Amino acid sequence: MIYLLLNKPYEVLTQFTDENNRRTLKDFVQVPNVYPVGRLDYDSEGLVLLTDDKQLQHRLSDPKFKVEKTYWVQVEGVPTEEALDQLERGVLIQGKKTTPAKARLLENVTFWERSKPIRFRANIPTTWVEIKISQGMNRQVRKMTAAVGFPTLRLVRVAIGPLQLGDLQPGEYRELTSEEVKQLKGLAKPVNTFVRPYKKR
After folding, report:
1. Annotated active-site positions, please?
2. CB atoms within 10 A of CB 131
3. 1-66+164-190 and 68-160 share one CATH topology?
């Protein structure tokens, strides 16, 4: 079995083909028969897990396993404690409330230069926020920060469960260590849903 971690660059699709000739994973990973676990938006950056282990792929993609993903998000403005509390309690997105998250302000964050710089306004500061979620709604983190009044300017996924971005540069990938594979499989163990059979009295 093959298990890879890729640092997906900005404006790259989390798939191997595209009819519109946009950049895809194929531009960076030439390993046959591996597929991404879940998705990362075209305009987001950071960790993508790829594997040919279909059972693990299915389990890690299933929301019921609640694999925590960590994002470092550059937002417009400086989020208040109230805004962070809202993110943690859950916010309404299209009539549906997000599950509880973890959110905290970050200091001294430095990343590689993005191929297209963020929108910059001289009179509005930007702030980096760490957000941890185990849900997988479409563009969830961006919608969450917008819902509390602090739009996302840049989004980097820095961890999937125990797997860390580390020193991987955009477009680089590496194989997981045997210990990391073991940890990953531990995350994907099915929950015991045994129900005692009903007995007629």
Report:
1. 41
2. 23
3. yes
